[in-house]
Amino acid sequence: MPVKLRFNKGKVPVQVYTEEIAPDAINQLINIASLPIIHSHVAAMPDVHLGKGATVGSVIPARGAIIPAAVGVDIGCGMNALRLSLKAKDLPDGLAKLRASIEAAVPVGFAEHDYDRVPGKLLRQLGEGLEPILKRHDNLAKRLRGKKRFTWSRQLGTLGGGNHFIEVCLDEADDVWVMLHSGSRWIGNTIGTHFIALAKKDAQRKQLNLPDKDLAYFSEGAEHFDDYVQAVEWAQEYAMVNRREMMRMVLEAMARVLPPFEVTREAINCHHNYVAREHHFGADVYITRKGAISAREGEMGIIPGSMGARSFIVRGLGNEQSFCSCSHGAGRVMSRTAARKRFSEADLAAQTEGVECRKDRGVVDEIPAAYKDIDQVMENQKDLVEVVHTLRQVVCIKG
User: Fold this and answer.
1) Beta strand 273-280 with 283-290: parallel, antiparallel or unpaired?
2) Which pLDDT band holds residue 386 (cuts at 50, 70, 90)?
3) Torsion region of 64: left, alpha or beta (phi above 0 gives left; psi -120 to 50 gives alpha)
4) Is the backbone of residue 166 left (phi > 0), alpha (psi -120 to 50) or beta?
5) Directed axis angle between helix 96-105 and helix 225-255, to 10°?
6) pTM of the entire structure?
């Protein structure tokens, strides 16, 4: 049985798949479990740590309600990976040119594409899906149609910063993989922020007795519930398309500097910050996975390590106690501020030896030592997933 810890101080229990969990994260999970909308129990994955709004690595089943802050503002953030026909021997001895080609093709950090870089048909489809929501939410419409009118369209196919990345990896057979991590960018942040604020106003108006104001929720039938569901589904689709567009650009960039290749495995494209309608323990619920991925029996997923650490292509085992979920990565053990204070550029260079990547002060907060040991994380969830491929990075691109 992989459950390591149980807490019974809320309305429902909290089940944790690791013993490595900070007290503040425990308190945050108990607050979630104290809400009247929670069904059965709350599950915390092995990469669990304190988050904004809700605990990262948490799986939250709610009956007839959704907590917007638990979904967060990077709506639909997730992973995309595919395997190529190339082998390690097909890569050049020096990988700087490959990294530079990818960085030139895909905007990172705050950079964006020119408007006309995104296919017009795709823009129209995404825009039409958003229009009905904007007609009912003037404040959201003003933000999206103001001075950043086309930001969401220019950001389709861009990476962003923080822990988002693009990697070229090798598996146990020396096959080449491409893997990337990103979400719904500025548009998802804008949508999430808008509805989180509305949920807090609703909770205040209804005088809900919440253990944390960030846990304000929309119930079915509430004024903004349907609009939030529609908006969050739109943002999740945008995130999925964003990763597809980025992957297309990465492959084109690689083709300019590598021998001819083909894609030999269909892409895995999965969210790890999202909400979905599912059936668990006898009830239809809205499952929020904040820093967790779906791991139904036979379902393929991606669990990345930190830059310089191993990553894994996995197959779900359908463990119902975890709501058929698993971790989304290694999980932080210290804040970005703490990592910047503790580690130097020399530390980063040592911990990413052999990986073609940035090794400057700007990414020290992403140093592997700021994250949990990915091997221990995988050991703690061996009843949730089975490893299909183990990947090691040779190129890592961050914003």
Assistant:
1) antiparallel
2) very high
3) left
4) beta
5) 140
6) 0.94
Interval 316-356: pLDDT, tens:
999 999 999 999 999 999 999 999 999 999 999 999 999 99
Q: Is 328 a catalytic residue?
A: yes
Which H or E run contains 314? strand 311-316
Return the SS3 of 317: coil
Element (H, E) at 252: helix 225-255
Packing angle between helix 185-206 and helix 138-145, nearest 10 degrees?
A: 160
pLDDT at residue 118, rounded to an integer: 65
In angstroms, the CA 300 to CA 79 distance is 11
CA atoms within 13 A on the CB side of 353: 4
Q: Tell me, what's the pLDDT at 249?
A: 96
pLDDT tens sequence across 209-237: 999 999 999 999 999 999 999 999 999 99
Closest CA to 236 of 44, 107, 73: 73
Picking from 308, 241, 310, the residue whose alpha carbon sits closest to that of residue 269 is 241
Q: How far apart are CA 45 and CA 59, in angstroms?
A: 8
The H or E element that residue 394 is part of is: strand 385-398
Fill in the amino acid letter for 147. Answer: K
CB of 46 closer than 8 Å to CB of 327: yes
Confidence of residue 152 (pLDDT cuts 50, 70, 90): confident
Asked if 154 contacts 118 with a C-beta cutoff of 8 angstroms, the reply is yes
The total of other beta-carbon atoms located within 10 Å of residue 63's CB is 15
φ, ψ for residue 238, nearest 5 deg? -60, -45
Task: Report the alpha-carbon distance of residue 218 to residue 68 in Å, rounded.
Answer: 8
Angle at 229 between CA 224 and CA 233, to 5 degrees: 145
Give the other-Cβ count within 10 Å of 298's Cβ. 9
- Report phi then psi at 141, rounded to 5: -60, -40
CA 94 to each of CA 98, 124, 241: distance values in angstroms, whole numbers, following the listed order = 8, 41, 32
Catalytically annotated residue among 41, 137, 181, 328: 328
Q: How far apart are CA 234 and CA 228, in angstroms?
A: 10
